[in-house]
Amino acid sequence: LSFLDQEMSDALSYHFWNNGIVIRHNEEYDTIEGVDDGVIVHLKSGKKVKADCLLYANGRTGNTDTLGLENVGIKTDSRGQVAVNAHYQTSCE
């Protein structure tokens, strides 16, 4: 949860874990099989995960690729978000 402060991310992960919610980072699925009482996710690693339900999220990216930010000296990060420093200043001078 890179968009959150580390303390918030740790607290959220802790509460998820205590409520039986498992977050699987950087996993790749092969197939998803619907069954009467939920889903079975077949992972590329060969593992199978059975669950009541499935939430698939692939992250968030900035929608900046067509704005021409490079023409005005504003840099973006690997996720397409405008890069800022600790004071939320961009690279534009």
From TrEMBL:
Keyword Flavoprotein in record: yes
Superkingdom of source: Bacteria
Gene3D superfamilies for the chain: FAD/NAD(P)-binding domain (3.50.50.60)
GO MF annotations in UniProt: dihydrolipoyl dehydrogenase (NADH) activity; flavin adenine dinucleotide binding
InterPro entries for the chain: Class-I_Pyr_Nuc-Dis_Oxidored, FAD/NAD-bd_sf, FAD/NAD-binding_dom
Names of required cofactors: FAD
Gene Ontology biological process terms, A to Z: 2-oxoglutarate metabolic process
One CC-aspect GO term: cytosol
Keyword terms of this UniProt record: FAD, Flavoprotein
Residue ranges constituting the FAD/NAD(P)-binding domain according to the UniProt record: 3-92
PANTHER family given in the database record: DISULFIDE OXIDOREDUCTASE, SOLUBLE PYRIDINE NUCLEOTIDE TRANSHYDROGENASE
Family: Belongs to the class-I pyridine nucleotide-disulfide oxidoreductase family.
Name of this protein: FAD-dependent oxidoreductase
